[in-house]
Amino acid sequence: MILFRGPPGLISRMVLNKDQYIIPRRDGHVLAGSSLENVGFDKSTTEAAAQTFHAAAARLVPALADLPIEKHWAGLRPGSPQGIPYIGPHPEVEGLFVNAGHYRNGVVMSIGACRLLTDLIMGQSPICDPSPYRIDRGDFPVRRNNAN
Ligand SMILES: Cc1cc2nc3c(=O)[nH]c(=O)nc-3n(C[C@H](O)[C@H](O)[C@H](O)COP(=O)(O)OP(=O)(O)OC[C@H]3O[C@@H](n4cnc5c(N)ncnc54)[C@H](O)[C@@H]3O)c2cc1C
């Protein structure tokens, strides 16, 4: 991701093009992203990537070409092996509930995922069938600290 600082009102709406997006903020900041790499927990960034984003953003919205980059960062999108998030009680640790592995869609899914998790915690009739999201033994192994 890169963040530009521009004058408020420079861009009035979001611009989407395939995997690329430009998101203006009211205070003039403009967010541009994003790319995707399978690199484990590595959140480091490169100057080359920043320049690539800068050029791509300027192609979409030429007014961005001369704006400085205020911030450049990478975030994690933790997923699951099957591409289905884990939502529900941990099979080994009583009272522990998991809501994880949403990959690229955690924001979009948050309302439904949290509603399902709340239903399961409260013992209410769940909003949908929870079985596809179940956590099986071994999915989240427990490391026990036996040192006293
Ligand atoms: C660049 C980018 C763009 C994205 N765009 C979208 C989008 O447009 N729409 C969408 O739906 N999703 C999007 N996502 C995905 C979305 O951000 C994630 O699916 C969502 O944030 C996952 O939520 P989470 O709570 O599981 O994990 P996170 O949001 O990653 O939260 C995990 C939290 O745990 C904390 N933490 C980690 N380790 C520890 C520790 N040891 N102790 C204490 N705290 C810890 C972290 O600091 C963090 O606050 C995007 C992600 C990225 C990186």
From TrEMBL:
Identification of the protein by name: Glycine oxidase
UniProt-listed Pfam families: DAO (PF01266)
Organism the protein comes from: Ectothiorhodospira marina
Presence of keyword Oxidoreductase: yes
GO molecular function, one term: oxidoreductase activity
Parts forming coiled coils: none
Signal peptide: none
Keywords, comma-separated and alphabetical: Oxidoreductase
Alphabetized PANTHER family for the sequence: GLYCINE OXIDASE, SARCOSINE DEHYDROGENASE-RELATED
One Gene Ontology CC term in the entry: cytoplasm
